[in-house]
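Customer ticket, subject: "Can you confirm the structure for RNA polymerase sigma-70 factor, ECF subfamily?"

Message body: Hello, I'm evaluating your service for our small team and ran a test protein. I'd like someone to confirm that this is what the system normally returns, since I don't have a reference to compare against.
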Amino acid sequence: MTDEVQLLEQLKSETHKNEAFKALLKLYKERLYWHIRNIVKSHDDADDVLQNTFIKIFKNIHNFKGDSKLFSWMYRIATNEAITFINNRAKQLQVSNDDVHQLAINNLASDVYFEGDAIQLKLQQAIATLPEKQQLVFNMKYFENIKYSDMSDILGTSEGALKASYHLAVKKIESYLTKN
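Agent reply: Thanks for trying us out. I re-ran your input and got the following:
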């Protein structure tokens, strides 16, 4: 029995659920944090979204059917939570999602948790110019090295479309970086 299957059984068991959830947190907290952080940019916002993500996972683990990998299911939840966060922030500020991304990028330089240099800040600015789907695909491939097959499970898009999105994203980023 694989570790994931065993962990899933424990998560669905009332007697072992809390203990198993702690193990799940330990296994995936950092990876999901960075996935979310790549979307929302801010450390504090990423922490909030991560907390909401794990609450959803905890409450809905019994609904996990095993049609995909557990990590893919959790990444889908994290991605949806991050996008929902951005949508809500846009509504709250009465601006577009693109404006929310740009605001987050503008605040990156003053974020004490941002450890990047000027080049990394420029890359983040370039990524912010991409459509949301291309941003997701680029971040997942470039920063997290997620396989297209896993990305397909997470985003519900074909591998071919994901490869095309990544290719387009790279071209747009290269163009942005050479012009700026």
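A couple of notes from the result: The mean pLDDT is 88. The chain has two domains: 1-115, 117-180. Feel free to reply with more questions.
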